[in-house]
Amino acid sequence: MKGHIRRRYAGAWSVILSGARADTGKQFQKWHTVRGTKKDAERELARLIHEYETGAYVAPVHLTVAEYMNQWLNDSAGMRIATRTFERWSQLVRTHIAPGIGKHKLTSLKPAHLEAFYRELLTSGRLSGKGGLSPRSVLLIHRVLHSAFQRAVRLGMLARNPCDQAEAPRADSKEQRVLNGEQVAALLESLGSSPIYMPVLLAITTGMRRGEICALLWKDVDLERGLLWVNRTFMETAGGLVLKEPKTARSRRQVALPAVAIAALRKHKAAHAELMLQLGQSGIEERFVCAWEDGRPVPPAYVTHRFIKELRRAGLPKVRFHDLRHSYATLLLGAGQDMKIVSEMLGHADIRTTYNIYSHVSEQMQRQAADKLDSVLTNARSPLQP
Q1: What is the pLDDT of residue 298?
Q2: Which of 111, 141, 295, 288 is nearest to 202 (CA)?
Q3: pLDDT value at residue 252
Q4: How far is CA 124 from the centre of its chain?
Q5: How far is 120 from 123, CA to CA, in rounded Å?
């Protein structure tokens, strides 16, 4: 492999590789453009020759980042990707990635371009033009780009992934917000006959996710045995609600019900049965547990919006509906329940996920255990006392 450089115009050079194909002996040339000094062009020529000789060379692809990202989205659409995830990726490409770095040539994109892009997003990335995106949002954009560019590397369109050398912002760790036992009791009392009483009760007594609660059917609930089974979930998409399988195999699970939940579900089911009898309907087992009078499921979005209003009305701290799941786990762990059992009841794919989220509770439990041991040793007047 040989090569030479040629000046195009002030500050721009053509780097030309010349060689013969190993299989046919046919001569070829590959042209690259370098912006900078003559020394920059000579260094790029040496790098490209080295890559060619070591098998790492990638021929220039004349696609812009925007063109490639749209191609990546089109190819991803046929794969097993959740609809909501695909919609989120498409939104990020359309609103941030394409406007921000879309005009760059795919093969010319450098880590420095990405870091400048991230800084711009952090300072002025909001679509309203008022302020920047959070570090967590910019990190998500970085991960989307990394995934897309990794495919380009695998297909031989890129020699390396520019995201690997780009420093992405670190997501701020969110402080865990939970309701304590007294606050949970106050919330349930305040809800009374609210349409979200049952979703809230199920969240705080089973740790189920919002979509799992709204998708629960009566056939999934065994009140005699005090058990329910999580077999499906609702996902909100641009086209409406989609019923699908839980997010992981471990998410499909059996959950034991406490007595308070069993009693409330019995009363709730009896009311459903009475209403269906009045309407001349049958087949309650196929009806959603959380449903409107006409049998349609209560949408997850409605649960979230109504929950915010109910919290405000009850004068309770501002938490997300999903934080009831955290409250459930925290109350169980605080009561001494084993981390592995809690992980199974939450449907986490790996116990490490549970530990990472609730390690602060584990540390508190360890401190309490140490204090109990200290008390035992002190009361026993151990020779260890000073």
Answers
A1: 94
A2: 288
A3: 85
A4: 23
A5: 5
**According to the model, what pLDDT value does residue 190 have?**
93
C-alpha of 357 from chain center: 14
Residue 177 is predicted with a pLDDT of 80
Predicted confidence at residue 382, as pLDDT, reads 46
Integer-rounded Cα radius of gyration of the chain: 29
Cα torsion at 356, 357, 359, 365 (round to 10°)?
A: -150
Three-state helix/strand/coil letters over 31-46: EEEEECCHHHHHHHHH
User: How many of the other CB atoms lie within 10 Å of CB of 14?
Assistant: 14
User: What token pair was written down for 16?
Assistant: 């030309």
Contacts 24+ apart (CB under 8 A), 31-39: 31/60, 32/60, 33/8, 33/108, 34/5, 35/11, 36/11, 38/5, 38/7, 38/13
Q: Which long-range contacts (CB under 8 A, 24 or more apart) does 305-312 make?
A: 306/194, 306/195, 306/196, 307/196, 307/200, 310/187, 310/190, 310/191, 310/194, 310/196, 310/200, 311/187
d(CA 43, CA 343): 54
SS3 assignment, position 49: helix
pLDDT at 239: 78
Going from the first residue of the chain to its last (386 residues), give the mean pLDDT of each consecutive group of 10, the final group possibly shorter: 86 85 75 86 87 70 89 81 85 96 93 95 90 92 95 85 93 71 91 93 91 95 94 85 80 89 95 90 92 92 95 92 86 74 74 64 55 54 47
Reduced to 3 states (helix: H, G, I; strand: E, B; else coil), residue 254 is strand
> How far is the CA of 374 from the CAs of 26, 251, 371, in angstroms?
83, 40, 5
CA angle 164-168-169, nearest 5°?
160
Distance (Å) of CA 324 to CA 54, 137, 173, 262, 353: 56, 24, 19, 18, 17
Q: Check residue 251 and give its pLDDT.
A: 80
Distance CA 229, CA 305 (A): 26
What DSSP designation does 162 have? G
Strand, helix or coil for residue 374: helix
The DSSP H or E segment spanning 29 is strand 27-35
- How far, in Å, CA of 134 to CA of 34, rounded? 35
